[in-house]
Structure formats: C-alpha cells, structure tokens
Write a structure and sequence with these properties.
The protein is mainly alpha-helical. The chain folds into 2 domains: 16-139, no CATH class; 145-271, no CATH class. It has helices at 16-42, 52-62, 66-78, 84-90, 96-105, 137-140, 145-155, 167-185, 192-211, 215-222, 226-239, 253-271; strands at residues 48-49, 92-93, 112-115, 131-134. Helix 1 crosses helix 3 (66-78), helix 7 (145-155) runs parallel beside helix 9 (192-211) and helix 10 (215-222) crosses helix 12.
Length: 272
C-alpha cells in the first residue's frame, strides 16, 4: 500500500523563492521543482531519498540533464524550499511546508507515521491527533558526516574529474585553518567537545562543497588559493557559532554557506 497521496494542490500565488527558481532557470526549473514535489507526495508522502541513484533515475524519467537537476536542487536547498539540514544529514528532500500539507491531506487517516529524524516541525498532538512519530533511522542507520563524505568520494569516477569539486584538495587546504581554530579555542587541548564541534563544522563545510554542481563555481574552487579557503573557513566559523562571542543566528547554515561559496567563486572565476 502506498504511503503517499494521489494528488496535491499547487498554489496560484507562488512565493518569492519559487518565483526566483523560475526566473533563474526558466520553466525548466519550475517543472523540475513540481516533478520533485510530485515524487515526494506520490511515494513516501512527505520526503524522498536524494542519493545518486535517485538523481540518475529522476533525471532520466523526466528527460533532463542530471547536472542541471542537481544545480536546481542545490538552489532549492539554498532558498529553504527543501531543508538543507535534513539533506546534509540523511540525503533526503523534505520541508516543513511539505510535511504540514501531507498531514492535512492525511487528516482522515487512522494514523500517519513521521520519521523523527526527518521531522521539520514540532507537531502539536492537539492539532494532529493521528500522527505517530517513529525513530527507525537512528536505530538502523547512524551514518556520520565523515562516512557520508567518504561515500561521495568513492562515488566519483575518472569521468568526473574537472566536473566536481576536488574534495581531497579542499581537505588539505583546511588542515591549517582547522588546527589553528583548535589551538585558539582549546589552547590546553583539554576540551574534546570543542574539538568535536570544530570537526563537525569542517565536515559540514566539506559537504557543502560536495553538493556544488555549477561548472563555473567548480572551476573557481578547484583553482582557489590557500587564502581563499581560509576566508571561507573563517566565515563558516562565524555562521556555525564557533567564534567566541558570536552566537549562531543563521537558521539554515549549510544553505547560507552554499550561497557564500557560490557567490565568492563564481565572481573569482569571472574575474580571471
């Protein structure tokens, strides 16, 4: 029995982010976004896995270029149309809006299961009486950020060289800035929590680099200098709240850093 729904409504008044997708990528961008919503509502109801196999199958099904699809999805993540936090952890596309609408469509169902790890909204039991929060993902598949990056690296083939960010090089360029951050925030080397936070920030930043699909940005990154990566790292420390006295105020840090990186290296590449 399908977990999804047979039909869903499209707003006649599109919000600013959806209009921006259409403005930037034309009707192709809007059509791909609607096709993604269709797949989500049709299959699982409120999310879809977005791993490499799914990307290939989706692109082939709709007759679109995989790189173009990845580029549009990246823009959707940056704009919050999909949760970048959930995606970065689980390679899943979902959002608070999708989940709320799904539950509205399922209002008459006896019960509806929502995976705790994919939950974007704190659902009130008084408002959603048939909701059942389950926790299958954390019990069965706890994949660390580092492991997911290893999976991304292994997935790259010789044909991908020049078409994706050189993550090994970025990791090498990050060694000194990361070590310097550890020495500043943990001079006595006695606080493992600080070290863990810094390493998680590094892994999150690497994951952002791994999701970039725009060729001009990739070219700029793969030719970048130590100082340029250091500037990105310093911005990430501010965004993720590592710098002393700076509170983390960005609601979507990975989406924000994606925009920072794309703008920086798109501009650098155009200047060369």
């Amino acid at each position: 029995m399908s977990k999804g729904i047979k039909a869903f409504l499209l707003d006649t008044q599109m919000d600013k982010d959806v209009r921006s997708i259409e403005a930037r990528y034309g009707l192709t961008g809007y059509a791909i976004l609607v096709k993604l919503w269709t797949m989500i509502y049709r299959d699982e109801g409120y999310y879809c896995k977005w791993d490499d196999d799914t990307k290939y199958l989706f692109a082939r099904e709709i007759g679109a270029d995989k790189k173009k699809v990845e580029q549009i999805v990246g823009e959707c993540l940056r704009r919050g149309l999909f949760s970048s936090e959930i995606y970065s952890q689980f390679s899943v596309l979902t959002s608070a809006t999708i989940q709320k609408r799904f539950l509205q469509y399922k209002a008459r169902a006896k019960f509806v299961e929502i995976e705790k790890c994919f939950q974007c909204v704190n659902f009130s039991p008084n408002e959603y009486k048939n909701i059942k929060i389950v926790d299958n993902i954390s019990k069965n598949a706890d994949i660390s950020a580092a492991t997911r990056l290893d999976m991304i690296r292994l997935d790259k083939t010789d044909d991908d060289i020049g078409n994706c960010v050189d993550l090994k090089r970025i990791e090498m360029l990050l060694i000194q800035p990361v070590q310097r951050e550890i020495e500043v925030l943990n001079p006595c080397m006695d606080n493992q929590n600080i070290v863990d936070r810094i390493n998680r920030t590094k892994e999150s930043l690497l994951h952002v680099f791994a999701t970039i699909a725009e060729p001009s940005v990739i070219a700029g990154i793969n030719r970048c200098s130590d100082e340029e990566i250091n500037q990105v790292w310093m911005r990430a420390c501010e965004v993720y709240g590592l710098e002393p006295g700076i509170e983390k105020q960005v609601l979507n840090p990975e989406g924000y850093m994606l925009a920072v990186i794309e703008n920086k290296f798109r501009r650098i590449q155009s200047d060369k």
